[in-house]
Amino acid sequence: MSAQKMLVLVHRWGWMAFFALILLDLFAGLPFDRRWVWSPALLSLAILVVALVRARRTRREHPREAVEVGVPVRGRWSALNSPADRTPSHGTHGYGQTYAIDLVAEPAEGARPGFKVLWPVVRRSRDFPAFGEPLFAVADATVVHAEDRQRDHLSRNSLLAVLYLMIVEASFRDILGVRKIFGNHVVLDLGDGVFAAYAHLRRGSLTVRPGDRVRAGQPIARCGNSGNSSEPHLHFQLMDGPDADTALGVPFRWRGLEVPRNGETFTAGDTVPGGLHTP
């Protein structure tokens, strides 16, 4: 285990210890000075600051060129949290998400349920056109990680549900790590130190397993709503390692198609040439 991975785990365990001590104090009382309760949280915050400084220095000293890959979806979709608008696209460099993009299916105007302030609070996954849509390998690659045992939950696209997601659910998922953030996901080794991650996949939909070789354009899974997800969608990103806990994000271009901005719709064709290309 690398030192960087160990720091990530200590950071996570620190928050777990912090919340455990708070619960212990609330229900049983602590036999020592309560100021010590903050020690694990302060340790975790210190590790986070060090990690952010190191990552920023690495990005500045070793900038990455955009990698050209195929499009991971087919049909008419739109983008959310796009790196074409800002980086980091999701407001964080964590989990290699600097250049990540979220994609939601938009087969026709109004086909995708919109955000509601009050009602319905949640919706079923199958109410969204993205749910169950096939996803495709963006280049010839080797599968290095694949899991699809987590359930697809209800949507979080009302005001009450979004507040629950942001304040409660996301916090606990972050403490539990990549698996609970990404949900069902697959990671492909594209070669040249570049890895593609597909997150929030549908339970039981993977058609590949670690060690498999896949060809560009090959179906590998279906879109779902697992992990830290507000509605069925694909979270796609490139990174410089197979472990999102320690990887840095890598910018990408899509072959034959501009990376869309937030809210912009696009249509991806049925064929994608193989291979990975960097300038």
Automatic annotation (TrEMBL):
<dbReference type="InterPro" id="IPR016047">
    <property type="entry name" value="M23ase_b-sheet_dom"/>
</dbReference>
<keyword id="KW-0472">Membrane</keyword>
<keyword id="KW-1133">Transmembrane helix</keyword>
<dbReference type="InterPro" id="IPR050570">
    <property type="entry name" value="Cell_wall_metabolism_enzyme"/>
</dbReference>
<keyword id="KW-0812">Transmembrane</keyword>
<feature type="transmembrane region" description="Helical">
    <location>
        <begin position="12"/>
        <end position="30"/>
    </location>
</feature>
<dbReference type="Pfam" id="PF01551">
    <property type="entry name" value="Peptidase_M23"/>
</dbReference>
<dbReference type="InterPro" id="IPR011055">
    <property type="entry name" value="Dup_hybrid_motif"/>
</dbReference>
<protein>
    <submittedName>
        <fullName>Peptidoglycan DD-metalloendopeptidase family protein</fullName>
    </submittedName>
</protein>
<feature type="domain" description="M23ase beta-sheet core">
    <location>
        <begin position="134"/>
        <end position="240"/>
    </location>
</feature>
<feature type="transmembrane region" description="Helical">
    <location>
        <begin position="36"/>
        <end position="55"/>
    </location>
</feature>
